[in-house]
Amino acid sequence: MTTMWINGELVEESQARVNALDHGFTVGDGVFETIKVVSGRPFALTRHLTRLNSSAIGLGLGEIDRSRIENAVEEILDDNQHAAIGRMRITLTSGTGPLGSGRGHSQHTLVVAVSAAAQWPAECGILLVPWTRNERSALNGIKSTSYAENAKALHHAHQHDMAEAIFFDTHERLSEGTGTNIFAVIDGQVCTPSVDCGLLQGITRELVIQWCDAAGISVMQKHINAQELDSAEEVFLVSTTRDVQPVTIAKHMDNQLHIVSSREYKQGPVTKKIAHLFQAQASNNIDP
């Protein structure tokens, strides 16, 4: 039996209820975090809650009640021991509101859910989509529940047998995936898009940069165009549930939604070294 934590109560998943007028449902007015569960414990919880707090403030929801969420996490994991290896999602919305964009005056809605998770494949393909990340968006840097453009892009990726969709920003600079950050090895240099390219600063991205730096592996945050990505020796994705995942093929979709080119990559030595480094560091510290 799987239970969920909703506004202070543990309930069976089949009995879980949120008000139909909740603004997280009607207009996507909320923030969230996805957290990897390892041996029944949340990985990098402190970093995730720090980002959740930043997102909540950025969306105008105010600061989170950190101790309440920490208690909820503990309760949900204690009650769902079958999800020893899995993923947890913490969702905070502005609560119930009118049938429009304006917010109401109700209490925020807080939901913590956990489920088992399958391991990602050893490699993946990506679809470079024609839609853009807006680096000047009101939601830039906020992990918002407004995920429809991600769902649409990922749907198209799956239609072309690709595991992830990758966006460029409005200046045609590489940005991010629907739920991943992207890295490329260009002329031997590990590179990743800089934060001014409309991306969300992922927790795994942050840890990869930090741990690479400590290991003497230089990571350059820079503007990367499509030509540079195409000429890269290696490409890999990082995310909370994927850790470090090599990319072996990239397909490019044009504005008419046609595949116009593709590029294959090899699982190179740099990606393998960083993947091993990440696994070693993560296994030594559950809350880095």
Keywords:
2 domains, D-amino Acid Aminotransferase, Chain A, domain 2, Class-IV_PLP-Dep_Aminotrnsfr, catalytic activity
Explained architecture:
The chain starts with a strand and ends with a helix. A hairpin with a 2-residue loop joins β10 (181-186) and β11 (189-193). It has helices spanning 23-26, 45-58, 66-78, 148-159, 203-214, 226-231, 269-284, and strands at 3-6, 9-12, 30-38, 41-42, 86-93, 109-116, 124-133, 164-169, 174-177, 181-186, 189-193, 219-222, 234-239, 243-253, 259-264. The strands form two sheets. Strands 7, 8, 9, 10, 11, 12, 13, 14 and 15 form a nine-stranded mixed sheet that branches. The mean pLDDT is 96. It is α+β, with helices and mostly antiparallel strands. Helices cover 27% and strands 32% of the residues.
Number of helices: 7
Helical content class: 25-40%
List the secondary-structure elements in sequence, H or E.
Answer: EEHEEHHEEEHEEEEHEHEEEH
**Coarse shape:** globular
Write the layout of secondary structure elements.
Blueprint: E1 3-6, E2 9-12, H1 23-26, E3 30-38, E4 41-42, H2 45-58, H3 66-78, E5 86-93, E6 109-116, E7 124-133, H4 148-159, E8 164-169, E9 174-177, E10 181-186, E11 189-193, H5 203-214, E12 219-222, H6 226-231, E13 234-239, E14 243-253, E15 259-264, H7 269-284
Parallel strand pairs: 7-8, 7-14, 11-12
Antiparallel strand pairs: 1-2, 1-6, 3-4, 3-5, 5-6, 8-9, 10-11, 10-13, 13-14, 14-15
